[in-house]
Amino acid sequence: MHKLVVLYSEPADPDHFRDYYVTNHLPLVMKMPGLLAWRYSFDVAATDGEVPYFAIFEGDFTDAAAMAAARASQHGRRVAADVANYATGGAVVIHYPVQHGPG
Signal peptide position in this chain (predicted)? Predict the structure, then answer.
């Protein structure tokens, strides 16, 4: 499995971010080709100190190639372009292959 993570910094208007994200952005995300599962939270907390992020998104893909194909698709480019409509604080996008421990 390959995970895509988006870390959102504090936006200028948190209420607009939440509303736009749930009403407009997530419906676009759900249609990304190859997306197996997704989750998000606006309740990001740090175990110690201040948390540097306002919100987080995680998306699961079969592998890196499936994620790259989804992001490069016409729909994936539409999803990426939509971020400017709500994430005024910016976003950090990371991805990685998931390693599983025993059990």
Answer: none
Any long-range contacts for 82-86 (C-beta under 8 Å, 24+ apart)? 82/24, 82/25, 82/28, 83/25, 85/20, 85/24, 85/25, 86/11, 86/16, 86/17, 86/20, 86/21, 86/24, 86/25
Q: What is the pTM of this model?
A: 0.93
Domains of the chain: total: 1
pLDDT of 60 strictly over 80: yes
Per the domain annotation, does 23 fall within a domain? yes
Q: Write the CATH number for 68.
A: 3.30.70
Query: CA–CA distance from 33 to each of 37, 62, 70, 79 (Å)?
Result: 11, 11, 5, 11
> Which one-letter DSSP state was computed for residue 84?
G
With tokens 């997306």, the residue in question is 35
For residue 37, what are the domain limits? 10-52+64-97
